Amino acid sequence: MPRDNVSRVKKTNTIGILTFIGLRAADSVFQYALLQRGWASSLIERLGATAVSREMIVHVSTGQLQPQYAIIAFMALGSSVKQILNILLVLQQEMSPSSAVIIAFFNTLCNTLNTVLSVWAVTSQAPGPDSFFGIFRRPFLLAGIGFYSAGILIEAVSELQRTAFKKDPNNKGKPYAGGLFSAARHINYGGYTIWRASYAYTSAGWLWGLGVFSWFFYDFAARGVPVLDQYLLGRISLSTARFSLLADADFFVFL
Prior knowledge:
single chain, mainly alpha, 0% strand, membrane, transmembrane helix
């Protein structure tokens, strides 16, 4: 049986929650500093590679991030905000301090790889010093922003809809198949995969984006979904379980 990475015990662990919130909030500051302070560029150069020039990352006169890198930093911030809201509004299972550290570290690692690759001359998608309105002349960048926004909204909204359903005592023990979950049984996993891949694509191009998409798709298909299905089988009636497992097992509407 694949490993379950989250606790299924419904319990509030205040220390774990605060640890997770603190680490995820710190990550957005860290990702910004990697770009604005030049830490990511220094790392690339220490590895013997070539980083893009400083003026491509920040405005020389103001020190503010160029639009391309401001978007990348904002995507890191968006991931933190979404996950902090999730733990405050959605999470019902216990978040132990050790789990908080591991999950936060994994997300910081993913974000850091995006940030570092975004300044590597080989994978950087930055066009050079540009104005904010220059974004609208770059359709592929707009596509990355659009898919990122759609993915993170799909994940957040679907989980909020399911949480509202679960809070109704009349629905105790029932699986949720309404709202966005009526389109795909694991639509939240699909949303997560989309925004993670779009974030990677915006940072370092289509090859990195495809690699990230493939990794999360495989992980959810081979581990996450089977583990969740097994968990549900132990909680709901046999007839309901059969219906659930025979229903759409995908996490993308179009697959």
